[in-house]
Amino acid sequence: MTDVVFIAGRDPFDEVSGGHSSYVRSYARAAMLAGFTPHLFCVAPTSSTRETEIGVLHRVASPYRPFRQMLAALHARPLRAAIARFASGRRAPLLVHSFGVWGIAAVGLENAILVQSSYTTYRDEALSHVRGAESYSLPQRLRFTALSWWVRAVVESWERRAYRAARVVLVNYESVARLVERRHGVACRVMPYAAESAFFERPPAARGDGTRIVSIARHEPRKGNDVFLRALASLDVPFTARLIGGGPLIEEHRALASQLGLSDRVRIEGIVPDVRPLLDEADIFVLPSREEQSGSLAILEALQSGLAIIASAVDGLREDLTDEDALLVPPGDAFALALAMREALQNEALRTRLQRAARALFERRFAAAPFAAALGSIYQEMLG
User: What's residue 135's pLDDT?
Assistant: First the structure.
């Protein structure tokens, strides 16, 4: 089997729920299914190498904490040196696949074919947080504004260097392709993809009485959890809701839920090691994002579970979902979201139709096999 190096940045097993690490793990599984051996390079307090279910994990010692992708360039030298040692003595070029700003560690590698993946640009994500934070406390607004300044002054240039050094930049959405081209002047290739859960057969579970709602999203301004809570507070029909995910605004959202009188019907649970049981117990999945840039891995997991989907009609979500597959609402509109939830809660026929449509959409577009075939084809082309 042909080796492919993945520059994951963070240890992909440290972040057990969605986000960047889930994205990396899904690509590693697709590479394995396509006949490649992934070697995942990440930073850690100490160096080690071990076999895992998604390939060979190379943990590279770095003195800095991998704070998302905000300090990626500080880890570039030890990552690059470790990959160079791994590649020493090879005659054929080494295929190196990087994710986001972590691609800065691939710049300058000799005898390497660089592939880059993007699910947003860091500047656009940072600006979406600033816009979404307007309704939050002053300390939170200052926090996201300061992060945006750091991204503009420093991180964006790292990202640009990584993208421009790559032979191909892969994205899963036309919306992201437009962002990358506008920010960095780089054309992208759109390809299919899948959530990591797609690599495990999971037939939909039996549904209950139709009153159980679940949402999986980080507690950040762009995800719209505050909009979701205000919409729930206006419902006059029976329901229970569970909000899954971590993030800097989780305590503010817990306080808001209490202020809105939702404590007996809404549970804000934070990060859980496995979302699948929670999806199996639910009837309706809600994603109330103000902005996404791309789509959502959580939506793909909900489609696989056969849940009725209610989501904002924004960015890549509009490329994933149509009015035939889901109830789509304007982003940031608590009233419209409440109307959609009330309709799904009260109309069993609609809810059943949406549940069946969700599973059919998953099988048609977001299963593991098409994703692996597309990725394998691109790798073979790069090596060709």
Answer: 86
Residue 346 identity (one-letter amino acid) = Q
Helix axes 156-165, 174-184, angle to 10 degrees: 110
The rounded distance, in Å, linking the Cα atoms of 218 and 22 is 13
- CB contact at 8 A, 254 and 268: yes
Domain total in the chain = 2
Q: Residues 161, 229: one domain?
A: no
The answer to whether residues 163 and 116 touch, using CB atoms and an 8 Å cutoff, is yes
Domain that holds residue 170: 2-194+368-383
CA-CA distance, 130 to 263, in Å (whole number)? 28
Q: Is there a contact between 233 and 261 (Cβ–Cβ < 8 Å)?
A: yes
Q: Do residue 279 and residue 377 come from a single domain?
A: no
Q: Is the pTM of this model over 0.85?
A: yes
Task: Work out whether strand 94-99 and strand 112-117 pair parallel, antiparallel, or are unpaired.
Answer: parallel
CB 307 within 8 Å of CB 283: yes
Q: pLDDT tens, 309-350?
A: 999 999 999 999 999 999 999 999 999 999 999 999 999 999
- Residue 164 and residue 301 in one domain: no
DSSP state of 321: -
Q: What contacts 253, CB < 8 A, 6 or more positions away?
A: 219, 225, 226, 229, 243, 268
Rounded to 5°, the CA angle 55-14-212 comes to 105
What amino acid is encoded at 20 in this protein?
H
Same domain assignment for residues 265 and 179: no
Query: Does residue 247 share a domain with residue 156?
Result: no
Phi-psi region of 312 (alpha: psi -120 to 50; beta: other; left: phi over 0): beta
CATH number of the domain that 119 lies in?
3.40.50.2000
Q: What is the structure's pLDDT at 273? A: 84
